[in-house]
Amino acid sequence: MARHHVHLSPDENTAKIVGARRGKPVILRIAADALSQAGKEFRLAGNGVWLTDHVPPSHIERL
Q: Structure pTM?
């Protein structure tokens, strides 16, 4: 897939549904609040998905 942004679900349940489209989902928690406070820009797409250009590994946690 030719994605140009990181696609973020608004909640864990939505992430599970979206992830299950490709097999067993792996859910990652993103420290979006910390990223936003650090000046990271997020955009809300028309379908309710949050978009950002990059998420550093230090702000990702596997559930």
A: 0.80
CA dihedral sign, ordered 14, 29, 54, 44: positive
- Contact criterion met (CB below 8 Å) for 28 and 60: yes
Q: What SS3 state is found at 45?
A: coil
Q: What is the dihedral of CA 55, 8, 59, 52, to 10 degrees?
A: 30
Pairwise CA distance, residues 17 & 57, whole Å: 23
pLDDT tens, residue by residue, 15-43:
998 889 989 989 999 999 999 999 999 99
Find out whether 5 and 41 touch, Cβ atoms under 8 Å: no
Three-state DSSP state, 24: coil
30 with 59: CB under 8 angstroms? yes
